[in-house]
TrEMBL record:
The keyword Ion transport does not apply. Coiled coil: none annotated. This is EFMT1 methyltransferase. It catalyses: L-lysyl-[protein] + 3 S-adenosyl-L-methionine = N(6),N(6),N(6)-trimethyl-L-lysyl-[protein] + 3 S-adenosyl-L-homocysteine + 3 H(+). GO terms for biological process: methylation. PANTHER family: EEF1A LYSINE METHYLTRANSFERASE 1. It comes from the Eukaryota. Its main location: cytoplasm. Keywords: Cytoplasm, Methyltransferase, Transferase. GO terms for cellular component: cytoplasm. InterPro entries: DNA_methylase_N6_adenine_CS (IPR002052), Efm5/EEF1AKMT1 (IPR019369), Mlase_EEF1AKMT1/ZCCHC4 (IPR041370). It holds the Pfam family N6-adenineMlase.
Length: 213
């Protein structure tokens, strides 16, 4: 009679240890998130979902864009972040009481931010809640999720609907002509960086005199 146990694949002690370590880390991360000191607005508090084509900016880039947005919005200005959650998180982390911020985002995990979260699908560019009045934002920051003219064109409809005038667009360098065509924005000298390197060269575009040059 053969030993029945032979059929059961055994994990090596090394694999087991690695697995335990992984679960422990996960628990610690989740624990951190619920403990007092955790800042729900810090970049990475909601992790990237590549299936949604999400790529968070590096801390420095998010800070730079957030500061630019606050300056551009002016005192008691309103800022809309379209598909740019890491800039939204930085704006909230900065806690500048002078401005109010909205996040328009397809990923419902960001609904943890309460009333400032607005579900947004670029395929329905002006399917927005009535509370979002046309031309009610001093600046709109947008980072369309895909490098396609269709995505840019549709996101552009939303941007033009919401902004009083100022636009800060973050997208690939290859989109320069389309960005000019659909939004009248020009490339800045500032080079945005991501927490993980992207294959495509990434740039910022504006239609006003910004501090990004």
């Amino acid at each position: 009679k053969m030993d029945d146990d032979d059929d059961i694949p055994q994990l090596s002690s090394h694999t087991l240890a690695a697995l335990q370590e992984f679960y422990l880390e996960q628990q610690q991360r989740e624990g951190m998130k619920t403990s007092q000191g955790f800042n729900q607005y810090s970049i990475g508090s909601i992790e990237e979902d590549w299936q949604l084509s999400q790529f968070w900016y590096s801390d420095e880039t998010a800070l730079c864009l957030a500061k630019e947005a606050v300056l551009a919005a002016g005192k008691s200005g309103r800022i809309a972040c379209i598909s740019a959650p890491s800039v939204y998180q930085k704006l909230k982390e900065q806690d500048s009481e002078d401005v109010s911020v909205c996040i328009l985002e397809y990923d419902r995990r960001f609904s943890v931010y309460g009333e400032e979260f607005i579900f947004y699908d670029y395929n329905h560019p002006v399917d927005l809640p009535e509370s979002l009045l046309p031309h009610s934002f001093d600046i709109v920051i947008a980072d369309p999720p895909y490098l396609s003219e269709e995505c840019l064109q549709k996101t552009a409809e939303t941007i033009k609907y919401l902004t009083k005038g100022k636009i800060l667009l973050c997208t690939g360098a290859v989109m320069e002509e389309q960005a000019a065509k659909h939004l009248g924005v020009k490339m800045c000298k500032f080079i945005p960086k991501h927490s993980r390197n992207l294959a495509n060269e990434f740039r910022c575009y504006v239609n006003y005199a910004s501090g990004l040059d």
